[in-house]
Specification:
single chain, mainly alpha
Length: about 120
């Protein structure tokens, strides 16, 4: 006996993104979870993930950088000198490297260090 059409759709109901699932996608992708893995976390197909969360997938890396940079900035403003030095090194070109200039004449070289060993030319 042939099946009769019931007029309704078969299969799972259409996926409806929520604020919670959008945040979950942002975090997962920003932290390096693949799109396949993110789709599995949500229980949807990769096509559904890309269809409903395209914006979150594209923005996730930028959001991660913004949050981490903001945290570093907050630490710098609260007095963390390591954070201050890092930000000024990256953004203002500051450096703690010292350049030593010798203006005299070198008469002789008594020892030469190669790979942590002393090579004495007189030995």
């Amino acid at each position: 006996m042939p099946r009769q059409a019931t007029g309704g759709k078969h299969g799972r109901p259409a996926h409806q993104p929520t604020d919670e699932t959008r945040l979950r996608v942002l975090r997962a992708v920003a932290l390096g979870v693949t799109q396949d893995g993110t789709a599995r976390l949500l229980g949807v197909s990769i096509e559904t993930l890309r269809k409903h969360y395209k914006d979150e997938i594209e923005r996730s890396g930028d959001i991660l950088v913004e949050e981490i940079a903001g945290a570093m900035y907050g630490k710098a403003l609260s007095g963390d000198t390591a954070a201050q030095k890092y930000i000024l090194g990256c953004r203002a070109g500051w450096s703690e490297k010292q350049q030593i200039e010798h203006t005299g004449k070198i008469e002789t070289i008594e020892r030469v260090f190669v790979d942590g060993k002393i090579n004495d030319p007189d030995a």
